[in-house]
Amino acid sequence: MTVAPVEVAPGVHFVEGPASNWTILSGDGTLTLVDAGYPADLELVEASLRSVAAGSGPELPRLTSVLVTHGHSDHIGTVTALRRRHEFDVLAAPAEVPNVTRDELHQVTVGDVLPHLYKPRFARWVLHAVRAGGLGDVGVADVVPLVPGTPRTFSGHRVVPTAAVGHTPGHTVFALPDDDVLITGDALVTGHPTSRLEGVQMLHPIFHDDLAEAGRTYGRLVEHRARVVLPGHGPALLR
Asked: Which of 93, 176, 196, 229 is deepest in the core (most CB within 10 A)?
């Protein structure tokens, strides 16, 4: 399988992966990865980084940062393996760091899923998640706290991390105001293997750590007027 990055704004490249998405920022001679797929997505992530790097000019940029919306295995799965090939910082909101390092675990359990396995979509998703390494140890060491509300510059892009809790305790969305882009992780999606719906939606209730808070966060994000919305699952939304 191949996945091709799509440049949705100058230097902002979206990849719709097999079951979860990631985004690559390019500029200033560097690359920044936002989320990182399942463990089995490693070669796809690497290929997308090479593709973006090759289109960035004669001097290939290097990966210097990985921003994490949240610590689920389908969003941090390749980070440790990538660190064997690249040298970069991993950044997440302070409240999410324990989930990323696996000092705590906030993720859907087998018990949560079992009552839904009679549904074909859930059964197919579980099979893919297991084959993709979703039950493996994907904890990431040495995570740098990224303070919500404090703008930072990554690969030439102004990035504003914003708390969007509920899916996990420290879930974060990343606004790129100069690019009119919002990266929403799993706080707002446009599709999921377990869902029959298309378009803007919440994930199934079993996936959220705090469903009521996730609903409030989703409501706020629906009102956000970014021209480009890049979800953790489903296609990009261009308005």
From this structure: 93
Q: Which CATH class is domain 6-238?
A: alpha beta
* Per-residue tens of pLDDT for the chain, all 239 residues: 668 999 999 999 999 999 999 999 999 999 999 999 999 999 999 999 999 999 776 667 999 999 999 999 999 999 999 999 999 999 999 999 999 999 999 999 989 999 999 999 999 999 999 999 999 999 999 999 999 999 999 999 999 999 999 999 999 999 999 999 999 999 999 999 999 999 999 999 999 999 999 999 999 999 999 999 999 999 999 98
User: Could you please report the per-residue DSSP string of 196-235?
Assistant: ---SSBPPPGGG-SSHHHHHHHHHHHHT---SEEEESSS-
Cβ contacts of residue 149 below 8 Å, gap of 6+? 160, 161, 162, 163
Cα torsion angle, 119, 121, 122, 127, sign: positive
Residue 90 token pair: 């991993």
CB 85, CB 46: distance < 8 Å: yes
**Strand 12-16 with 21-27, pairing:** antiparallel
Decide: pTM greater than 0.85. yes
Please write down the HEC assignment for all residues of 162-187: EECCCCCCCCEEEEECCCCEEEEECC
The helix or strand, by DSSP H or E, that contains position 15, with its residue range, turns out to be: strand 12-16
Rg (C-alpha) for the chain, rounded Å, is 16
For 45, the enclosing helix (H) or strand (E) is helix 42-54
Q: Are 189 and 202 in contact (CB under 8 A)?
A: yes
DSSP-based three-state secondary structure for 43: helix
